[in-house]
Amino acid sequence: MTANHTAVLKHGGGVYTVTSALAAPQSLPAGTYTLHFDPVTGYRITTLPDLEKPTYRVYGRRDKTIDKVIRTYAHLDRSLGVLFEGDKGIGKSSTTMELARRMCAEHGLPVFLINHNYPGLADFLSSLGECVLVFDEFEKVFPIDDDGVNQQNQFLTLFDGTDAAKRLYIVTVNDTNKLSPFMMNRPGRFHYLFSFDYPDLDSITEYMQNEVPAASPEQVSDSVSFAFRARLNYDHLRALATELRIAGPDAPVAELVADLNIRDTEDRSYDVKVFLANGSTAMSYNENIELFLRAENPDDYESVTFGLLDGSSLRAVFQGTDAVMDRRSGKVTIDEAHLARQFLTFPAEVARKLPKEVLGAHDNTDGIRFGVDPSESEEPMFRELRAVKLELTPAKHDHARFFG
Hints:
By secondary structure, the chain is an alpha/beta fold. It has helices at about 60-75, 90-105, 120-125, 140, 155-160, 200-210, 215-230, 235-245, 255-260, 350, 355-360, 380-385; strands at about 10, 15-20, 30-40, 40-50, 80-85, 110-115, 130-135, 165-175, 190-195, 270-275, 280-290, 300-305, 315-320, 325, 330-335, 340-345, 370, 385-395. About 25% of the residues lie in helices and about 25% in strands.
C-alpha cells in the first residue's frame, strides 16, 4: 500500500487520524489544518476554521509581496520557500495568513499551521502532498538550544524542495540571528527573504490621517513625530489612533501616549557617541535620555558630558524631541544645528596654559575649571573641539527591545 493510494483511515468530526507516515493523505480538501501527535495513536490532522479575508485597510507593501510569491509559485515546478523576518506587530503574520488564504482560495491547496515540534515531524510533513506549510515564529517553536541542539536542522532536507510533491513553505522569524545558518543565504531552500521594517514617515502619516480623520493637524504631526523617533509598530499606532478618536482633536498626544502600554514613553538608557569637528570621537555610557516630552525650561533640557584629553570635557545640551531615530537600528542622531548649547571645560592646570583672552567672556570659574562655548568661539583651537553630531544607541545592558 503506497502513500499515493492510501486513503485516510478515519475521518470524523473534522479529525483525520493517521496511523503512519505511509497513511498521510496526499490530497486534502482546500482548507486550514493543524497537527497533533500522540505517542500511541500517532499523528492527527485537525481542521480549523477557514482563513478569512481581512476587512481592515492595508498599509505598506503586503499585497505586492503576496502577488509576487503567488506568481513565482505558479511559475515553478518545484517547491518554493519564503522567509518573512522582522519584529512583532509590523505585518509578518497578517501577510503570512493572507498569502496562505489566497493560496487556498486560488490554487485549492490545503494550509497547515505548524505550531509544535513533534517527534518525526519533518518526516511526516515530507509525506504530505501539495500544500502550504506555515511556520510562524519558527525560531521560538524550533529553537537552537544553548547546549548546541539545533531543532531547525531536521527541516533542511524538507526545505530543499527535492520531494516529489510541490509545496509552499512560509516561515516567519523575529530574529534571523536565531535561525540556522544553513537556512540563510540559501535561495535553494528559501527563494525569498522579505524584511518587514517599521512604518516610515509617509506610512505613519497616511495611517493617522485615515484612521483618525477628525484628528487635528497638530495631533497628526505629534503622532508622526513620536512614532518617527520611537519604534512604533502598527499595533502601537492602532492603540494611539483609538485614544485620539476617543479623546478628540484637542487632546495632547504626549498625555495620551503617557497612559498607553508602550514602554518607550519612559526614559531609556543610551550609549552616546560625540563626533567632533576635528574628526575625533568620544563616548559616554548609560545616559538616561527622554526623547519625546519637550522641556519648556532650558534648565530641564537633556545634556551629556564627554571626557576629552587632558581632563577636559565637553557638555552638549539639547531637546530630546529634536532627535531623529532610525527605528530599525534604534540609533538616534542629533546634529549640530539642534544642539541648544555646548560647553567645553578645562581643569585649572590646563586653563592656566591658555591665553586669558582666549577664554574671554566665556570664563566659568568654580575654583577648579574654566570653560568656553566652542560653537560660539572664533578660536580655531576651540572650534575644532565642538560637537557636530551626537549618536545615541540603546545601552547594551538594556536588553528590552523597543516596544518589544
